[in-house]
Structure formats: C-alpha cells, structure tokens
Specification:
261 residues; alpha/beta; Undecaprenyl pyrophosphate synthetase; six-stranded parallel sheet; 6 strands; disordered N terminus; binds farnesyl diphosphate
Length: 261
Amino acid sequence: MFKGLFQKPVYSMPSKVKMDTSGLDMSNIPEHIAIIMDGNGRWAKEQGKVRTFGHKAGAETLKKIVKAADALGIKAITAYAFSTENWKRPVTEVHFIMELLSRYLTSEIQEFKENNVQVRFMGSREGLPAIVNEKMDHAIEETKNDTGIILNLAINYGGQAEILHAVRSIARQVADGTLKIEDIDVPVFENNLYSKGLPSPDLMIRTGGDLRVSNFLLWQIAYAEIWTTSVYWPDFTPDMLIEAIKIYQKRERRFGGLVQK
Ligand code: FPP
C-alpha cells in the first residue's frame, strides 16, 4: 500500500553528526531526554505531501538525534512514537506508522548494534500487530547487551494507562500477599511502571509548537525541565538539541527544595 514511500533504502544511521558544541557545559549534560516528536503531518502538508511522508522523515530525524545525543554523552532518549490515543487517526495512517515501525526495527538493528545503542520499549503490547511485537522482541534481544545510549521507544503508550497498569500490578501483589500496603512507596511504584530501570527524564523536548504534555510520562516528568520549539519534528536538528540543552543548563533545578547559596 505504501510501496512508493519505502522504495529507497534510506534507513542507515548517519555516520557523522555535524554539530556546534561551543558554549555547552559538557559536565552538565542531561542523562535522560524525553521527546514529543510533533509536527510530522504539518511538515508534510506544508510541502504539499501526504501526512505519512512526514512520519517517514520524522523517523530519519530520530536516527540523527539519537546519534547526536550519544555523541553528547546523553544516556537515554525516550521518544513518543505512537500514543494510546493515536489509534483514533485514519486507519491508513495507523497502518503506515505500524509498517514504518516494523521496517525501522528491521533496517536499523545492525546500525544500532554497531553504534552500541540499546533499544527498549514502553507501552502496551496488546493491540499491536503481531509483526510489530515480533520485531520489538527481536530488537530487545539483539541489543540487550549494548552499553551505549538507550533508545526507549514509547509505542502504544499513554501515561494514564501506564499508571493504571502499575496500580493493577501492585494491587495483585498485595492480593497475593507478596507486598504489604505500607511498603508501597515511590521506588516500589516506579518498579511497576514501564520505565522500570530508567532514571526519570531531566529534560522533555516538544517540537511542533503545542504547549502540552499529551499524556506522555505523566509520573516520570514530575521534575523534568520542559523545552518547546515551534519547529516541526522532521526539521529538528542536532544543533537545536544543543540549544535545548544550553537552556536546560541555565535552569535552576530545585526539586522542590531551595538552592544552596
Ligand atoms: C507526531 O506528528 C508524530 C506521531 C504521531 C508519531 C509518528 C512518529 C514518527 C513517525 C517518528 C518515529 C518513528 C519511528 C519509526 C520510530 P503528528 O502526526 O501529530 O503531526 P501534526 O501535529 O503536524 O499533525
């Protein structure tokens, strides 16, 4: 159905990322960055193309940004690839994104391994096409020993659904006697989230100009710094990532406390 769009073998990680790191404090790089990759559809429309063209370009941008993030010493990127609400989109667009994911996970795996990228996922596996689930399992298995940057893809993900999933899991443990109610605390709760084992994001980036959280990482962004840009995701560059980090470095992170003077 989407043959034309997938003809060229464009899925290779760019070998070198051009970026200007002058003025960046390399001793204060965020460990974990969350990204809402918004604006693919509008980007495509502006060029007189179908929305799906924007998603394909967006997948390319993600590759570039992961590479740049790795070079900057960022430890993890969590990218919002498909939300629990995205099923409301026209069926052709949903199919396209699923096919894109499936192809991406096949074509990129070698590059991920060569670049020491560990691939993880967050979200519900239920309702995803079997082939996508298989490719996800394969990507996890193939990259599980990679020690470089973690690329955590949020697929069929919603923050509210994730919290409900954690609550159900905790309730089950209480019901079967393996957990006491008084032992439920923040670390226990976080161990029951899809993001188990990952530190909370220090910085959340949203492209596309909207100023909302869109059900992304509702628990985990409690103290994340937020940076937004009106630039559409396919036009987002490594230099813009650096710009976001520079702004992050100027912020005073107090985590509810006071800054020591
Ligand atoms: C937002 O743009 C993007 C999405 C809903 C998800 C698609 C994301 C990608 C294709 C990038 C990552 C892909 C892979 C394969 C990992 P939008 O459609 O909401 O844009 P709009 O706000 O302009 O309509």
